What we know:
The protein has about 300 residues and is of the alpha/beta class. The chain has one domain (about 25-260, about 275-280): Vaccinia Virus protein VP39 (Rossmann fold, 3-Layer(aba) Sandwich). It is about 25% helix and about 20% strand. It has helices at about 5-15, 30-35, 65-80, 105-115, 220-230, 245-255, 265-280, and strands at about 15, 25-30, 45-50, 80-90, 95, 100-105, 120-125, 140-150, 200, 235-240, 260-265. The protein starts with a helix and ends in a 16-residue tail after the last helix.
Amino acid sequence: MPRVAAKEAIQASNVLPFPSKLTAKIECSDNLYFMRDLPDASMHLIVTSPPYNVGKSYEVRPSQEIYLEEQAASIAEAVRLLHAQGSICWQVGNFVDDGEIYPLDILLYDLFKVHGLKLRNRLVWTFGHGLHCQKRFSGRHETILWFTKGDEYTFNLDSVRVPSKYPNKKHFKGPNKGKISSNPLGKNPSDVWDRKTDVWDVPNVKNNHVEKTDHPCQFPVGLIERLVLALTNRGDNVLDPYLGAGSTAIAALKNDRNAYGCDIVPAYIKIAKSRIAELNAGTLRVRPIDKPVYQPL
Length: 297
């Protein structure tokens, strides 16, 4: 088989069929190789959670300097792919060395700013479960840095509004006195999400979670789904260059967006493709985006 035809056949094998002519391009590949094959300005949302360099089973732990160099290369390629009205969301936690924590969002901020991106929000995601620390307070939140390329960008606030605290509040003076003052669709969820306050309180994927796979640090679909709904439109392209178990792809396809993603671990790509096939068949189990967090009595 000619080399060009062989490459096209390999690429075709990575594009899974999906209803409504959606594309799911999922590959086992280094993210730089994968991204370099994609056209400039072709991605409307790039959302990911890179390795934190803490020695997980799927990562080789380099020095902090080398880790930041590797992140700089991935970020530069992501910026090339970003659509003019698109967004990049980089979800990170802490690098930990000899008991001292280094917040990765602070370390990575300048790697985005050097490309002229603008930080729109530093979103806080809280969760109720995790490692119990002995010499510091247990970490129960991570952050999402949301950057845009310019001042004209997609932001569908109405798609992610939450119920107003005082839905029947009325204007007390002026020409609208006596009329409802709140938005009937709900309020802006703010940059810290919770179903009871304004915190992005989304359960992380642990053993009893309905979405649990063999991936040790799996994205909850609901977290990414909010970003997909707010920052893209139907038919847009969503990329995750550290795809893992494929939660970003699920969130995109579930909401009529095209999904692109890669990971270097074959087992995780197998999981991602299996989950997409289940979504296609209508058998994939996911936690509803609007389901309240369980509160024991």
